[in-house]
Amino acid sequence: MDFLTKFPAMERADLRDLKKGIDSSFKEFSRSWGESIEVFFDPLFYFLVRFEKLLLATPWPIIILIVAALSYLGSRSWKLSLGAAVSFLLIGYLGMWNNTMSTVALISVATIICIALGIPIGIAMSKSDRLQAMITPVLDIMQTIPIFVYLLPVVMLLGIGKVPGLIAVCVYAMPPIVRLTNLGLRLVDKEILEAADAFGSNYRQRLFSVQLPLALPNIFAGVNQTIMMALAMVVIASMIGVKGLGVPVLQSIQNQYLALGLMNGLAIVALAIIFDRVSQQYGKRLQRHREGGNDV
Amino acid sequence: MENAYSVTGKVETMSDYKIEIKNLYKIFGPNDKSMVDRVANGMGKQELLDHHKHVLGLRDVNIGISANSINVIMGLSGSGKSTLIRHINRLIEPTVGEIIVDGDDVLAMNPERIRDFRRFGASMVFQKFGLMPHRTVLENCMYGLNIQGVETGEAEKRANHWLDRVGLSGFENRYPAQLSGGMQQRVGLARALATDADILLMDEAFSALDPLIRADMQGILLDLQNELHKTIVFITHDLDEALRIGDDIAILRDGELIQKGNPQSIVLKPANDYVADFTKDVNRARVLTLNTLSHESGTEEGLPLNSDLSIEEAMQEMIVSDHNLVTVMKEGKSIGQVSLNDMVAAIAKPKTSQTGASNAYR
Fold this sequence. Notes:
Chain A is an all-alpha fold. Chain A has one domain (44-286): MetI-like fold. Helix content of chain A is 84%, strand content 0%. Chain B has 17 helices and 13 strands. The termini of chain B are far apart.
């Protein structure tokens, strides 16, 4: 009866050896490859540092003007543009300017990386059912695995700092853009694709002149989701040494500084709302042709 | 043969037909090739589906399509007509068969040649228009030209010309969603004409339009054809449409060709009950011409009328001028006569004995 009441688990010693084996081989791997992997990510590091320095060196009125202008270009709404400018003024007045610039730099770079990698992956997935079946579980893992579990090997490999933080953010934030690019391309009306084929388009022509433009609403929803998820990672990224609004939030948790945590938390919320509204409005504006009516 | 589908596209034809479809079979399913013998030996559509889980699309279709005329392929839904037209530009791969266009087997072409054929040789108009919602009317019309690699300024000029021809001047910068169905299909027609292809494939092009707009579009197509003389393959399920625009009509049923001929022969000599059932409600006065009724008789002089006139038109003339006999004229010479009685007899619905049997096809 022993067999039924006691799970036939692996011997404790074997299990310990297995874990030790994995640990030591990964340590071995990081010792021999860590440096070259770090060198590989160097361009990313310099890009992020330069961008952050540029934002910090630019006089604040210019930054606020740029924010207002970009918001207006994206959304064509004075209200939103004004709201963005006021939020940034308030953030600066409450002494969070430098941290906000660091966070904006991190989020921008992470979003660019996610788009640059995610859209081509999504396109490849939409083309092949087999690839889709292979990549979908990977995306599931990226989104659901506890963040600390993959934070650990990243830190073991690359140490603490900006690049591991950036990688952690990208791992978490990339799935939506990949998924929605794939979905958007697959949802394009078959009749329109047939028309494109009937006129002799090749794959490239069909992709760029028909599929991508028609998938744009979904791709844009993906970009929007990616930005939101990147912002959600700001506090966790600060645990592995990324500067920005997450650092004071972390401090406030450790020391029970209610006001500090609240202010910085709200600054993250403000950034999220501005990014979200502007990108959504922009996405909507690209879809003007879907409306009937005659207001061209 | 690389230049066979040049923009002017005038190539010596090797047979009397522009497009020849030979022994074409299409069976949908994983083992389509192995089912061909069964179908060729007479297995029916239902049996194939029940016992082998394959769907019969087309069975041994042989059609010759004459150049410079409107060839209508008619059938009810499920008859395989849309499948057939998609074989001509190979949007659907056949199971076995040959499709010869200008002496070249379309089915033997590699993907690059197929694309060239679609770009320069045959353009298509779709039932649900197939317009690109993110492109303006002008950009839609330019699509085929963009794919051909025509330089933008030139493409715009040509697209504008064709938009003008279908009566859409002034709508160039609208989006398709802002146009009515009839206008959208004019864009579809202009887009297909803009590529300057010899062959125009029209898949139920007017079926989604309401009757008045449909008649209007048929008129536009006939006017354009009088001048352009394209080889048009026109799919429809509407016999009146087929009789109005078709120079030649092929009737499909369950993937099989049942009858092929000019409109009058379809109406006068239906190949079987199925076709007879189709044609029994047709306005025969509008389809039949004096030419078909003309016969030698007597020396009496009638009202001289052209042999191309329909009976309806001839009757109107006769009533106005108070005649009851027509002398049929062809190229200035008399070829026979038709009396009012002949006309009435031809128009009156033939009294068939198979009224009961014909209901089986409903």
